[in-house]
Amino acid sequence: MNKNNSSVLIQSRRKFIRRSAIGLAVSLAPFSCFGFPNPFDWSKKFQFDVIVIGAGAAGLAAAVEAADAGASVVVLEAAPKIGGNTLISGGFYSAVDSKRQTQQGVEDSKELFFEQTFTFGGEHADQELVRHLVEHATEGLEWLEKLGQHFKPEVFELYGAHWTRSHIPVLPLGYGYIRTLSGAALSRGVQIKVEHLVKDFTVKNGTVTGVLVETEGGRHEFKADKGVIVASGSFAANNELVKQFAPRLSDLTTNNTPYSTGEVMMAAQKIGAQLVDMEYIQCLPGCPKGKKYRVRFHNDVSSFIFLDHDGKRFIREDAPRDELRDSVIALPQGYAYTLIDGVGFKKAGILVQKEAVLALEGGEAWRADTVGELAKKLGMIEKLGMQPEILEKTVEEYNEGVISCNDRLGKKITPQTLEIKKPPFWAAYAGMTLHYTEGGLKINKKAQVLDKENKPIKGLYAAGTVTGGIHGKNRLGGNGLADAIVFGRTAGQQVVLNTKSKD
Questions:
Q1: How many angstroms separate the CA atoms of 59 and 232, rounded?
Q2: What is the tens place of the pLDDT at every residue in 178-202?
Q3: Residue 488, pLDDT above cutoff 50
Q4: How many of the other CB atoms lie within 10 Å of CB of 426?
Q5: Could you tell me where the DSSP H helices lie in 172-286?
Q6: Within the chain, how many helices (H) and strands (E) appear?
Q7: Among 252-261, 477-486, 492-501, which is the least confidently predicted range?
Q8: Section 410-428 average pLDDT
């Protein structure tokens, strides 16, 4: 291919991606803002059956279930818009799904799901919580579909998932979840309030009775007759807490929203809640410190390889996420690269393609018609001295391993695993960015928050990333949204059931 033709193709691809991205933006416009008015009369006191803190997947799932159980519910969100980290997540949901998996020749079971979740978590998680997650993940998936959330007919092995059970939402990222759940909540009479920052809990006779909320109008008290559900998300954007619990990771960037501060979690600790596993923070490949662009070539383990600065693979692509984090951080430069071919690029989807083109234009991704040419570009721009023959040998050995089903580094080769052989070839940065705080409020399988003596704090429940003990040292890919939905639903159900049992 001559340079003129190559240039034409690049320009055509850019135009296609931009047009597609514009179309996608237009299609998302009606529900991408997710802001809500706040028509409260602050001269009155506000009393509900259930208060939910946080309007991501966990909080909204809890609100829907509590409303279905007959409770009056308000959702308090600190940010100007709802969605939290769910909205910007990959959107993948892991669950055993015999229909989809059987069509692809994938064998699976809840027992295998449990074993992998517990084992890859370093056998550190609460087994009762893990069991609750895997037993109800499929039910949660079906519940979402009944509400109107749509998934593609195929499943795949998400990076760090260790099995082909990750479901792909039809709408990108977490848009579909938030649109579906917020719509379901509003149709059930749930009130959703943005820019309502919960500062403290109110407690009477050992029972949580409400929260103190800070808004532009001042500080106000919301009362809960049945209970409060904490679904306020992670603390990955709070560098002070990261320094306190995981100091070696405190210099890394985060892909969480700036509202992932852990303030509500710490307020719960002040009233006696127990924190667990706070030192375990999961990282994902992202832009290294000082860089601008994140390109998610790593999503599908069947399609890419990791490279060090010499152009060699240094770890298998399906390694546990904590192992990959530590391996990348240990590299002299503190970051690596991902490499993908034309087939993998097409398979990655329009959003990842858009990321790649923007990074290419910004000098933080590279594209070439041959592997050797790609090595020269990386070597020149990054001043690595990367030798074309080394990268060519790396790709050749990887492809041989795919064909023989015997990868040199031990990567599991499945029928879905692709050789890297079709141009154009792409490379992008793979630094480590803080993604998922695996520690937080300790809960039981009823989503009740436990005190330091492992006794439930009356009237206090939690779900989602604000909790700990479910994933241990390492969360499987796709288990985050499953966790949010399963324990969000459980919290919404139990806050009403526990109250009724006392009536």
A1: 8
A2: 999 999 999 999 999 999 999 999 9
A3: yes
A4: 26
A5: 175-187, 239-245, 263-270
A6: 15, 20
A7: 492-501
A8: 96
Q: Which among 453, 107, 446 has a CA at the least distance from the CA of 273?
A: 453
Residue 229: helix, strand or coil by DSSP?
Answer: strand
Tell me: the pLDDT tens digits for 18-52?
433 333 333 343 344 566 555 555 445 689 999 99
Structure token pair of residue 73: 């519910």
| 346: Cβ contacts below 8 Å, ≥ 6 apart | 353
Q: Which helix (H) or strand (E) holds 75?
A: strand 73-76
pLDDT in tens, 339-355: 999 999 999 989 999 99
Structural domains of the chain sorted by starting position, each given as residue range(s) with its CATH number in brackets: 46-280+438-502 (3.50.50.60), 283-434 (3.90.700.10)
Identify the helix (H) or strand (E) that includes residue 441. Answer: strand 440-442
Per the residue annotation, which of 296, 321, 325, 475 is the catalytic one? 321
In this predicted structure, the answer to whether residue 173 has a pLDDT above a threshold of 70 is yes
How far is it, in rounded angstroms, from Cα 477 to Cα 485?
15
CA distances from 82 to 180, 197, 325 (A): 12, 13, 30
Helices 110-120 and 127-147: crossing angle in degrees, nearest 10, is 120
Residues 203 and 132: their CA atoms lie apart, in Å, by 29
- How far is Cα 7 from Cα 110, in angstroms, rounded to an integer? 50
Q: Do residues 175 and 182 make contact, with C-beta atoms less than 8 angstroms apart? A: no
CA dihedral 21, 26, 32, 36 (to 10 degrees): 160
371: left (phi over 0), alpha (psi -120 to 50) or beta: alpha
Q: What is the pLDDT of residue 386?
A: 78
321 is catalytic: yes
Residue type, 381: I
What pLDDT score does 12 carry?
41
The pTM for the full model equals 0.86
The 8-class DSSP code of residue 345 comes to: H
